[in-house]
Amino acid sequence: MAKEEIKEVERENDLDRMTVKELRDVAADIEELVGVHAMKKAELLSAIKKAKGIKEKKAIKKSDVTIKELKAKIIKLKEKREEARKVKDKRMVNIFRRKISRVRKTSRKLSHA
Known about the structure:
Layout: H1 3-17, H2 20-29, H3 41-52, H4 67-86, H5 90-112
Helix pairs in contact: 2-3, 4-5
């Protein structure tokens, strides 16, 4: 990643962690934003990110990914985890375990939605 991209990601994470008051202060400094004090946190975040040119992360929607695709992804991750076990790479085994867990949680969210 280029240094500019890393700084952009850091700014986005910083914005997500800010309180509404802090976001209003940041938004007040941007001249093109109007009605800052009436906005809610989600509105402030999207307006600030749009004004600063920061791309927003896309949330997973039911139409984006199917449960069948997620199950296939879990199978591939399990295969990679087994390969890491054979090579005795504990670090990668742990990484794949966490990835599998995240995909499982996502599939559960989709099945209950």
